[in-house]
Amino acid sequence: MRRRPALGRYVLTLSAVAWALVIVFAPSAVPSDLPLAAGLLVMATAAKLRPIHLTQKMKMNVADTATFAAALVLAPWLALVVGMLSSLIASFARSRRAHFEAGFNAACSGIGCFAAAWVFFLMGGDSGAVAMYAPAVLAAAATKYLVNTSLVDVAAALQLRRDPIATWWPVHRRDLPQTAALYALGALMAIVADANPLAIALFALPVVAVYVSMRQAARLRVQTRAAIVEFARLIDLRDKYTHGHSQRVAAHAERIAVALRFAPTQVELVRDAALLHDLGKIRTGDHVLQKPGPLDPHERDEMRMHVQAGAELLQRLPDFWEGAALVAAHHERYDGHGYPRGLSGADMPFEAAVIAVADAWDAMTSDRPYRRAMPVSQARAELIRWRGLQWDPRVVDAFLSVLDAPEPVRQPDTGRPIAAPAR
Question: Would you identify the CATH topology of the domain 5-206?
Fold first, then answer.
């Protein structure tokens, strides 16, 4: 997505504020703090050079240990410098072209450190006796986290035109436990620095241990995710008629969610749940899945069990448990005649209503054992016919707008986007 002008102005303003703070508060620097600041700067920079990808779109590093310690033991000006320089050095070491990103990250890190150090100072905290000021330490931690996340969320809101307040908790609840642990380690580092600044070097080992543990956990999550997605693909392969069904449903659901202006985290949730919506069919027999005619009542009951079976499987997986409720509801109907619970209207999760339309569209426009695929015009007429009865009218309208919009495709020879004809 092209960068919006409002985002550019915002980042320039943040950078100006950060450098203004450096200039205004530079005279307050304490020369005796410089060696300690240099040590924390080295640790923070080293940590930021190796970020950990917790998910496909979320990464973090263990630099919060060093930068939070800096906020507690250094003057606010020096804490600001440590936060800014560590980000700048790490950003340019990874990519010398990323000036915009480097400036933004440096401003966020520096302002967060400065705000935490200032709150610690205002609450009477003493950098020479950090252990004696637990309330000030907690306030500084909360300030640093809220400032850092808010600055990033405002940038995302300006670019994506979303509400930063409404999306704060869904976006950050995954990284909050890890960040709290890093802050706690940073507080311990600050306490040790009270006795002997050179002792902060001893924290290199536990910080590396935390990094390795987080990296291994991230790798395990990635491997688990890949295995579950592959599992869903193999379920589609059980029947030639459903080959690629889940991938197509996920693609349709994602486009609908974007058209409905869902937050990015919601779009990701909808896409993942749509990709795995038929996971429970692993428990459905082939004689039911591939039956060339109508199902009898017993077979229909067996087929319907895949909804709850898929939800139960996803509830056990940390990366997918949020989608379990959507999988459980993707065969509900707007008029309340769906299954398994007979939810209707607003009682049905809106994200599940999106998956329901995407699933129905692919089912109508694909060959099945008991019928041939419908022409697009007929499937479109069915959506309109059952709009407000089987399907949420808002979702149907959004999907019809998606169908009417040109879809970017790739030319084989150049790879440049061209507009596909409206379907």
Answer: Arp2/3 complex 21 kDa subunit ARPC3 (1.10.1760)
